[in-house]
Amino acid sequence: MTGSRADVRPLLRARDLTKRFTTRGGGGPLGRKSVFTAVDSVSFEVFPHETLALVGESGSGKSTTARLVAKLMEATDGTIEFAGRDVTHARGTDLARFRNDVQVVFQDPFSSLNPRHTVERILTAPLVYQGLPIPGGRRAFAGELMERVGLNPDHLHRYPAQFSGGQAQRIGIARALAVGPKLVICDEAVSALDVSVQAQVMDLLLRLQRESGFSYLFIAHDLAVVRRISHRIAVMKQGVIVESGPCAEVFEHPRDPYTRTLLAAIPRIDPEWDRRRREGAAEHASTTASPEELP
Fold this sequence. Notes:
Blueprint: E1 12-25, E2 32-46, E3 51-55, H1 62-69, E4 77-82, E5 85-86, H2 92-101, E6 102-105, H3 109-112, H4 119-130, H5 138-148, H6 165-177, E7 183-187, H7 195-212, E8 215-220, H8 223-226, E9 232-237, E10 240-246, H9 247-252, H10 257-264, H11 273-287
Parallel strand pairs: 3-8, 3-9, 6-7, 7-8
Antiparallel strand pairs: 1-2, 1-4, 4-5, 9-10
Helix pairs in contact: 4-5, 4-6
């Protein structure tokens, strides 16, 4: 990301987000209680038209953070602001408005798509549930969404099980776009896909961002996956953000030992890997559109 943020208001601002879970050991109601802190005082910002990647190993707290931001679970402490509004305790119409602005694409599309509903019904459901008008009617609206994500609109009558994993994930992305969100949270959205399909879906996500100008909070455990799509990266370990910065800077000059460990875990194809990684980071910095440059 180039330029100054001094005059740019964050789209999303999380401050000191904390999530604690109380468990009871020993079995039964008399078991001893213990408290597990999954997310510990995490703060970050997502600016308009940019992609922030939240990266860490399984159990690092990144998916819990995503669910807190999407208000799929309540934070124990901390605040969430969206478009200048405090939505930490949003309820009723305020929560409904927030849910229109923030959508989630989940890791497993088959578990997040109703297997008993046709694609047409799945894609129009967000508007139906919100009581919003459907431009042009259900079939035309759903067909347009299918075309936007590279699927055949003639397949609206099919059910999720009749699609491949990559196609089903495209349907999940189309559903997220149905209400015109300002922020899309991708929670390990490509980790369950084959490598070749991952690349196709990443290309799709980049194109959709260029066309619509929304922001991404991109959750992943693999730094190699986020390198191409991200403007900035925040690295999480054991519920804490240990490092954050522009994508090229994190790849070229990682400060935290944990970040260096994640970078070292990227498969090396040949002895020239380090040189190509450096060149790729420099190319990313020069070719990736900054949030201000996106439409």
